[in-house]
Structure formats: C-alpha cells, structure tokens
Amino acid sequence: MPWPSRKRDKGAVADKKEPDAKIAKTEEETEDKEEEEQSTKPPAGSSKSGWKNWKKTKESDSGGEESKITYCHWLLKSEPESRLEKGVDVKFSIDDLKAQPNQTTFWDGVRNYQARNFLRAMKLGQQAFFYHSNCKEPGIVGIVKIVKEAYPDHTQFDQKDPHYDSSSRKENPKWSMVDVQFVRMTKRFIPLSEIKAHHLAHKADGGPLKNMMLFTRQRLSIQPLTQEEFDFVLSLEEEKPH
Q1: Distance CA 163, CA 66 (A)
Q2: What CATH fold (topology level) applies to the domain 73-237?
C-alpha cells in the first residue's frame, strides 16, 4: 500500500510560525514558464561562521561580478503531523521516510503547475532539504537525494486518493513525481525562524538568502535552491542555535 501523498499544493497555507508572512495567491490556474537553466560556478565552500565570513569568501571568489542564477538543489516540504484530507492522513515525516525499504519513496501528490515543473527539472543525484511544514515549529530536519527522475504520478488516476484528478489522462499525464532517498539528518534542527532572520538580513546587505523562495513563494511545496542558498543554509547546522 503506497504512503499518503507528501504534499498538498491546493489550499496550501503559510507555516504557522510565520503569521506576518504575506500569503501568496495560489497559481493553480496558470502554468508558470520554467526558468531557463543557466550555468554558474558553485562557491568555493560553505561558511561556518555566518554571513560576514561568507561575504568575504564570495567577494574574493567572484571578483565583484554577479553570478547568473541556476538551481541545482531543492527544498521539499512535508507534513510531520497527522492531518486528514478527504479521509486520508497525509502525514509524512522524515522518520517515515527512514522507515521505508531502502529509505526510499516516491514524492507524489503535487498539484501545482510550477511545483510540478520543478519536479520535472530535478536531476539524478541532486540533493534536497527535507522540510517539516504546517507544524508547531517548521524547519529543515534532513537531506535527501533524487534517485529517480520525474515520471507519472499514479495517484492522479486513483479515485480513492485525495489527489485524484479526473481531468488527467494516462496517455498524457498532467502530474509527475520523483523518487527520493534519505541521506542524513542535519546536525541540528534548523528552524524557519532562524532562516528567516538571515533572509531579512541578506535582503538588506545582499546576502545569499535575499531571494530565497521559501519567503518569496512560500506556498510552493517544491522549491529550488541555488548553490549559494543551499551551502549557506547547510553551514547553519555547524552554528549554535540563536
């Protein structure tokens, strides 16, 4: 029996710990254009002592030139607490993933066009943060990797599934999913509140999290990350929580 879907994009809400966030309008009706993938050099390494050291490293590496944006990592939201959707519990925590055979599962149930396009852009071996969402304290708990690229999401054809889509046809499926595998837990829980504090600081001084989609398009369950965003957030696991 397959696990409940990992995410709900329809009617998604901002995380409970972010009451002051401006909730973006869901874009179910229009299919966003995929961004053209552009090449960029990854940063030399991640900062382990905050934005000041990170900024020094980036200035010396880039020679003052602004890099073009490319997305090569991801953030996947899933709900760790029980919640019924059409009679089905959609709970799926990182512990549930670890309990799967080979610690691997499919990431199904995505019903937003832009999020689906991000799924289809994922490449084998790319890593993603596993993010606990819609819970008492949302945040990043671990890292997973893509072990199978996009293929049709079978739940769109299952009338008993809460994400059944009667308009989708097997000869031309509307929705896709990927397979992910557990890599490791982060060294500590990285809460949304901490990431948001860095985001706000970086908006003021041009740091790597200034345009992080977790805050600009927070309702999306599948979000891309640049190399800089991924490395900076990962560096936070080495620091003592504030």
Answers
A1: 41
A2: ph1033 like fold (3.10.590)
In 3D space, the residue among 14, 42, 38 whose CA is nearest the CA of residue 230 turns out to be: 42
Distance CA 77, CA 172 (A): 26
Closest among 100, 154, 102, 148 to 123, alpha carbons compared: 148
Q: Which two tokens stand for residue 40?
A: 């960029």
Strand bridging mode 176-191 / 104-107: antiparallel
Strand 139-152 vs strand 176-191: parallel, antiparallel, or unpaired? antiparallel
CB atoms within 10 A of CB 182: 20
Count CA atoms within 13 Å of residue 124 on its CB side: 4
Give 67's DSSP letter: P
CA atoms of 163 and 173, how far apart (whole Å): 13
**CA dihedral angle for residue 191, residue 213, residue 4, residue 172, rounded to 10 degrees:** -170
Q: What is the residue extent of each domain of the chain?
A: 73-237
Each of the 242 residues of the chain gets a pLDDT tens digit; together they read 345 555 545 444 556 544 333 222 223 333 333 333 333 333 333 443 445 544 544 444 444 444 466 799 999 999 999 999 989 999 999 999 999 999 999 999 999 999 999 999 999 999 999 999 999 999 999 999 999 999 999 999 999 999 999 999 999 999 999 999 999 999 999 999 999 999 999 999 999 999 999 999 999 999 999 999 999 999 999 988 76
Query: Could you give the 3-state DSSP secondary structure of residue 18?
Result: coil
CB 90 within 8 A of CB 8: yes
The one-letter amino acid code at 19 reads: P
